[in-house]
Amino acid sequence: xxxxxxxxxxxxxxxxxxxxxxxxxxxxxxxxxxxxxxxxxxxxxxxxxxxxxxxxxxxxxxxxxxxxxxxxxxxxxxxxxxxxxxxxxxxxxxxxxxxxxxxxxxxxxxxxxxxxxxxxxxxxxxxxxxxxxxxxxxxxxxxxxxxxxxxxxxxxxxxxxxxxxxxxxxxxxxxxxxxxxxxxxxxxxxxxxxxxxxxxxxxxxxxxxxxxxxxxxxxxxxxxxxxxxxxxxxxxxxxxxxxxxxxxxxxxxxxxxxxxxxxxxxxxxxxxxxxxxxxxxxxxxxxxxxxxxxxxxxxxxxxxxxxxxxxxxxxxxxxxxxxxxxxxxxxxxxxxxxxxxxxxxxxxxxxxxxxxxxxxxxxxxxxxxxxxxxxxxxxxx
Length: 381
Description:
Blueprint: E1 48-50, E2 103-107, H1 118-122, E3 128-132, E4 136-139, E5 144-145, E6 150-153, E7 159-162, E8 166-168, E9 173-178, E10 181-183, E11 194-196, E12 201-206, E13 209-211, E14 218-220, E15 225-230, E16 233-235, E17 241-243, E18 256-260, E19 263-265, E20 273-275, E21 278-282, E22 285-287, E23 294-297, E24 301-305, E25 308-310, E26 316-319, E27 330-334, E28 337-339, E29 343-344, E30 361-363, H2 368-377
Parallel strand pairs: 2-3, 3-6, 4-7, 5-8, 6-9, 7-10, 8-11, 9-12, 10-13, 11-14, 12-15, 13-16, 14-17, 15-18, 16-19, 17-20, 18-21, 19-22, 20-23, 21-24, 22-25, 23-26, 24-27, 25-28, 26-29
Antiparallel strand pairs: 1-30
């Protein structure tokens, strides 16, 4: 098992604006009169398997048999069975191991601060695998600065983080977030559910539901890199995911992100919005956006593969120009399934990076089976 894996599973369910409890609204099938499974568009004709191991020597994949580490003061190390799912990580954030070589930390109450709180464990310096002995809403008054070598594991508990979220900054390396719901209640103009900035790297966010924040849901900016976001649900939001903050942040050329099996459910845009860096976007459902689904500029590269784009009024599923940015991005589109007149337009596709030169992965055909799987499986459970 890889020791260097950061798994971030943020589970945030889709809710109505301003609702009062964590799991109030469950998402159903596509509404009548909207795009249904199998409706018009192009159909891919192959299944892709990107062969080849990663050449990235900076992130060694160290194997370990596990067991309680000798440095674990509490004596409660992380069992192999608990951390076995780390082997499911794919993409640029695949090497995340979180707190797997540290102690288990138990969240025993829903307080914002203090002993037994989520914040107490998340902001400690030592490696920790954070689990929840309670379920319910954690009402934050400020964002939590999530430190390095941490796993926030919400499996088996119904945990909703409200008002504010997590910040992963320069001191955040090797982070995993799993099965946590984030609801922002529109507080703070610069308030994100998960803000990954200032060189933070090796992050996996998996099975998360995120909605209704004052700024973004997941923002990856200021040279943060090597991030995978998978099986997450984005809803009740306008600018969902920003990768690369502005046309002036040239250091963002080093950003590398993998997005797979996520559901952008009727968000405004930014699914994602990319500048400078590289994004491998495969097997996602981008569903009835309001004004432009995905866009890349400033030489950023999107490798769009076997995604499902369901248009409503706006047809721009993938564009290579946006806003006031003066330089176009580059995009390739391979096997994307375009419904209701959706458009995913390649630009300088032969210059876009090849994900298979960085890591192994399998992208399945974009069809009704994939759509159902994403709708059934994305987000917190």
